Structures are given as structure tokens and as C-alpha cells.
Amino acid sequence: MSRITIKDIAKLLQINPSTVSRALKDHPDVSPETKKSVRQVADELGYQPNFQAIHFRNRRSGLIGLIIPEMNMFFLPSVIQAIEETIRKKGYNLIVFQSNDSLEREVEIVRICQGFSVDGLLISVSKETQDTEHFRELEEDGTPIVFFDRVVQQSGFPQIVIDDKQVSVIAVEHLIKKGYQRICGLFDKPNLSISQQRYRGYKQAMENHGRKVALEYCIFADDMDMGRVLFGTLLHHQEPPDALFVMSDELLAGAMQAINEKGFLIPSQIAIVSISDGKLPYFFNPGITHIRHSGAIVGNMAIDLLFQLLTNPDYVQEINLDLDTPLVKLGSA
Amino acid sequence: MSRITIKDIAKLLQINPSTVSRALKDHPDVSPETKKSVRQVADELGYQPNFQAIHFRNRRSGLIGLIIPEMNMFFLPSVIQAIEETIRKKGYNLIVFQSNDSLEREVEIVRICQGFSVDGLLISVSKETQDTEHFRELEEDGTPIVFFDRVVQQSGFPQIVIDDKQVSVIAVEHLIKKGYQRICGLFDKPNLSISQQRYRGYKQAMENHGRKVALEYCIFADDMDMGRVLFGTLLHHQEPPDALFVMSDELLAGAMQAINEKGFLIPSQIAIVSISDGKLPYFFNPGITHIRHSGAIVGNMAIDLLFQLLTNPDYVQEINLDLDTPLVKLGSA
DNA sequence: TTGTATGCGTTATCAA
DNA sequence: TTGATAACGCATACAA
Which of residues 41-80 of A touch strand D (CB under 7 A)? Predict the structure, then answer.
């Protein structure tokens, strides 16, 4: 026998499958004796409910989709660790997709999610994503969607973000107040709204203090290695920066490699402030002063909001996590 | 209309659902005209196949399960990044579970995987897992299972591993040959077979060179922080170690924090060799000499093997990745 | 309290 | 080449 079904149990007990079904889910109007014998036989036979059939029948999948641009060792692990835990507790399961920063792929993935009838979707969008067209259909089906981290501006979808601009202002002002003169800004891919916001914050802080933004001190890098190379080049300038604001852990890792290669001392030759998940900064000596933007908190807020929406579809809300982003002063600035 | 089905298309075209089904999958004996009109209507209506129904009908899920002890920023991201990519290419999807290093939870997850009829399973086992009882049923159903990284010794299941003992011998001998005298070994949870194997390698290397293993220099730590604390304590000993062999990136991160706190210089006061995914070692100054045990390679091999088994169930094999684990000499030893 | 009948969306089998 | 039918495993409205 390949796999035990409700029918098998029913046949063995000479009762109807529907009774077995009810007994197994502790339906009130099944006699205790029936329940008992059903459970016993189910145990003996090693019955495992067929989720596919159940979900199919119930028009739900028990799956929460997670779409990320690409897996990496920064930020996302914290997010995943957090959401998987909650999802499991609620009896759901997590299905993970990488868009590889391609809109085309993202669109396809959203279709797959539809095909799977995911009960909810968490997404950090690709760098090519400018609007939310491809989510409309899912939304119309009533599937809750929560955006986090990399979001689409003014999409109207619920999202978990920080005030990227404001947070960056705080970080950069910390450097300015400490008296640093040539402050480099190291940002992610330039077409990401998160990069733009953080760049605006950098610019704003500079202007607030009468500094002008020198373009050669503003670096946009696609990934860690590009960050390493571009920032490394800048360190070889006649007038290298004396401080660095870096918007992510990934780029911090790149910058640190450049600094190591060049042999600059922190903070005497180069001061650093970053926005970070809060782990990487402690790996270095001295530790890196950072604004803590915890992936775990983002993940938790995102999944909690998603479940809120699952229960109560009208509960639309944007959540801003600024309160949870303290400036952690370590040795680097 | 909530969602377009094959029936809707059929009704609209006044033909039979089965014909629509065949047309949509380009079945040879459907007339070109029928196919054309079906496709057109399907497009117009925005038909999306219902995977749940398809998979249910086909008794397969299109899902590959991945069970890991717990998500973290070391090693696993590389694995996930690699396998998700392959899985997507093959038209499957990835469902991710954390056992939280609990056997009980692992057992439950395996049951869930059965319930979902996953088409294959990749697993790095919990620290409590000593046998493979709970996989037997899945195996009997014909579901291929591949173990990686944290495996169960002599389980008979296909697995992707390195010769942990031998690799550790090489790492530690590198330190011995460089003349270091008091070589500390920093290992993961003591009941993991991977920890035991790597400890044995450490011991073997020492004994090969007539060194005796001092127990106070052998540290087993559950996680990064415990590694930081325990190794930090050791650094304060009268006779602190002059070299460190550390078996994972996570513990390397912990050890580096301890070293930073203590202010020891690398390699003059403390030399280091690690086993690493190959990213973290470059974050430090000097870089950390390591044996590269790439999560990407492990992930690729694991998922490739899984798909082999999916196609050809008799293709049982254990794969040993020693050839892909070079000693990368950076500045730390 | 239990049984009967039906359907979720799809596809394989058989018949036409 | 197409249609009718049944079935995958389960759950529920309804009948008894």
C-alpha cells in the first residue's frame, strides 16, 4: 500500500470516509467511541493527512511566499530566520524565491505564487522593479502582500520600512559633528529607491551643515566587490576621505576589505558609520559605529503584519520602524 | 469571477475541458486551430494553471524541501543561493524549514514534507539527530533524500560531505609546520558528528607530530557568542595559545571578537587557520588562512545529486568534496 | 450520530 | 480529433 488515506481507515472500520474525516479533526458530532477507534487505526496504519488534497480542497495552500532579490549573508538571513519561525508556529510553511534582481523573473515568480495559491507574500523587490502592476492580480485575489526593505515608493501596498532618508541624516550628522571633513557616502545600486533615499539623507545632512556634496565622494556600487574596488580607488586619491557613511552590511564588508588592503587606521585615518543588521560591525576592530536596522525586527514586523492582513483584510497599514533603529556607537566614529 | 479555470475556457469556446487541457499542453492530437483559439482565450482571460490541482492530480508537488538547523549568516546562505537557482531552473520550488536543532521538530518537519509530498529533500540534521529512523518512511515512498554538511554517520543515505577529519589534519598541520606551539582547537557543538570528526583531525595532526592534546586548548562552543566568551577566557590564561584552528565561520567570527577585545595581534600573537565558506576570511586584516569549504559547491552538488536520484532512483552515491577544498593562505598563518 | 453525494481543477482513459 | 467520464484525497451540505 503506497499511502494510507482516509478511505483505507474507513474501509477497515467499515464506516464512511466522511465520518473518518470528521473524527480525525475532532468534529463535535462524532461519538467518542468512533473517534477513539478512528484515531487508533489511523495511528496503527501511520496515517498522514495529504496536505495537497486538503489545501486543494480548501483553496488555500498553507504556504507563505518570500521573494528576495538574491540570497546573501547580510540582513536576509536574519529576516528569514525570524519569519520562518513565526510561519511555522502558525502552521504555515515558507516557500522561497530569488528574483536575481530581474523584473522578468520577479513577474514569473509572482505567477508561480498564484499557481501555488500562496496564502500570503513577502517581498523585497528587484532593482528593476518600478511599479506594482504584477502584484495587482494577486492582490485582487485577496492575497495579502507585504513589502519590506526594498520597496516600491507610494505603491499603496503595506510595507515595513524605516525612514531611510532620516536615518541616513542621523548617521551622517554623527560624522559631521565629530568634525570629519571629507565624508564619503557608499550606496547600493543607484536605481533602488532605498539607495536614493539614503543618498538623499546623506545629501541633506551635508547641506544642513553647509557642506557641499562632492560627487567623487559618492559611490554607488552593485555589490560587495564593486564596493571594495570603487572605495579602494577613492582611498588612493590625493585627498582621500577621512570618513565613510556606508548604507549596508554588504558594502561595509567591501569597504573594510579596501581599507585593510590600503592599511588605513580606523578611526584615525578613516572613520566609519554604517546602517547595519547589527552583527557585522562587531567583527571588526574597532567595532563599527552603526544605526541598527535589524533584519529580525523587520522580518517579525513583516510577517506579523501579513498575518494581521490574513485575518483582517481591511487592516491596511504602513509600518515605520524608526523607533527601532538606535545609533550604536562603537569605535569607528 | 474569482479565478479562471480550464472549465471557463471550455465553456466559452463550447468545447470540452479535456480538449482545453490537451491544447494548453500542446498535445499532438489537438488540431492547430483548436490550440490557437484555446491559447488566445486563455491569454485574454488571463488563465493561470492551478498548480495545486495539477500537483494533486499528478501526485507530485513540484516542491523540494530544505531542512536546516537554523538560518544564519554563515555557510547556509551560499547553499541556499545555489540550490534555489538550480531548483527554479528545473521548474521546482523550494520550501525551507528550520529544525532549531531539535530532533522533535525535525521529525515533525519530515512529516510535513510527507504531507506536502515533496519531490525531494535536502537536509543538514539537528544536533540531536543520531539516526535516520524518521526518514525511512519518506524514503520508502521513493522520495530522494540528500544529506549535507551535518550528516548522520553511516546512515546509508546519499550525502555531500568532505573528509572532515582529513581536512582538519591539513589545517592543523599547517600551523604545526609553521612552528606554533600552543594550538587551540575551536569546535562546534560536541555532539555533532562534524565537530567530532574535525576534533579527531585536530588530535590526529597533533599526535602525528608528537604533540599531546591539552584539553584546556580544546573548546566546544554552541554558537558564536559562546565561542567568543570561551576563547576570550582562554586568551587570558597564563599561557594563552599562540595559534588557533577554528572549524567554522561562525566560530571564527566569535573568536575574532575575542581577539579584538583582547587586542592580540595576528599572526604574531595569535595565528589562525579556519575552515570557511571563503567569504568571511577576507573581511579581516590580515586575512584568515583557511580551507575553503564552499557552501555554493556543497549546495550545487547536493541539488545535482538530488535531481540525479529523482531521475534514476538507483543512482545512490556518496560524494566527497575533498578535491574542492583548497588551503587558501592569507596573512593569519 | 452517521451516511450520501458532490465538488475542488486537472488529466488519463476510453469511447466516439 | 474531440467528448464523456472518472479519479486523485478530502471536506461539507444535506439527508437520514
Answer: 49-50, 53-54, 56-58
Same fold, B61-161+295-324 and B164-292: yes
The secondary structure of residue B30, as a DSSP letter, is S
Q: Which positions ≥6 away from B96 have C-beta within 8 Å?
A: A80, A84, A94, A95, A96, B66, B68, B80
Are B56 and A53 an interchain contact pair (Cβ–Cβ within 8 Å)?
A: yes
Q: Does B274 touch chain A (CB under 8 A)?
A: no
How do the residues of chain A divide into helix, strand and coil, expressed in percent and rounded to 5?
Answer: 45, 15, 40
Q: How many beta-carbon pairs below 8 A join chains A and B?
A: 132
8-37 of chain B touching strand D, CB 7 A cut-off: 14-19, 22, 29-31, 33-34
Q: Which residue is nearest to nucleotide C3 (CA to C1')?
A: A16
Per-residue CB contacts under 7 A with strand D, chain A residues 91-130: none
Q: Which of B51, B74, B94 sits opposite A115 (nearest CB)?
A: B51
- Round to whole Å and give the CA distance between B171 and B325: 11
Cα–Cα distance measured from residue A186 to residue A209, given in angstroms and rounded to the nearest whole number:
19
Nucleotide with minimal C1' distance from the CA of B27 is D1
Rounded (10°) angle between helices B164-177 and B193-208: 40
User: What is the domain class of B164-292 according to CATH?
Assistant: alpha beta
Residue A48: list chain B partners with CB under 8 A: 111, 114-115
Report chain D positions within 7 A of protein CB atoms.
1-13
Residue of higher predicted confidence among A44 and B328:
B328
SS3 of residue A160 by DSSP: strand
Q: Which three cell numbers stand for residue A222?
A: 552593485
- In angstroms and rounded to an integer, the radius of gyration of the C-alpha atoms of chain B is 26
pLDDT digits (tens, 9 = 90+) for A135-182: 998 998 889 999 999 999 888 899 999 999 999 999 999 999 999 999
Report the pLDDT value the prediction gives residue B32, as an integer from 0 to 100.
Answer: 87
What is the side-by-side order of every strand in the sheet holding A120-123? A319-320, A159-161, A145-148, A120-123, A63-68, A93-98, B93-98, B63-68, B120-123, B145-148, B159-161, B319-320
- Which nucleotide's C1' sits nearest to the alpha carbon of A16? C3
Mind telling me how many Å the CA of B59 is from chain A's nearest CA?
9
Residue closest to D7, CA→C1'?
B57
* Fold assignment, B61-161+295-324: Rossmann fold (3.40.50)
**Dist. CA B257–CA B228, nearest whole Å:** 6
DSSP at A283:
G
pTM for the model stands at 0.95
Residues of A with CB below 8 A from B42's CB?
none
Relative to beta strand A271-276, strand B159-161 is unpaired
Nearest chain B residue to A72, by CA:
B77
Residues A277-308: tens digit of each pLDDT: 999 999 999 999 999 999 999 999 999 999 99
User: Are the C-beta atoms of B272 and B288 separated by less than 8 Å?
Assistant: yes
Instruction: Give the containing element (helix H, strand E) for B256.
Output: helix B249-262
Where are chain A's structural domains? 6-45, 61-161+295-324, 164-292
Please identify every stretch of chain B with a pLDDT value under 50, giving residue numbers as ranges. Answer: none
Contact B70 A81 (CB under 8 A): yes
CA–CA gap between residue B274 and residue B281 (Å, rounded): 8
Is B92 within 8 Å of B62 (Cβ atoms)? yes
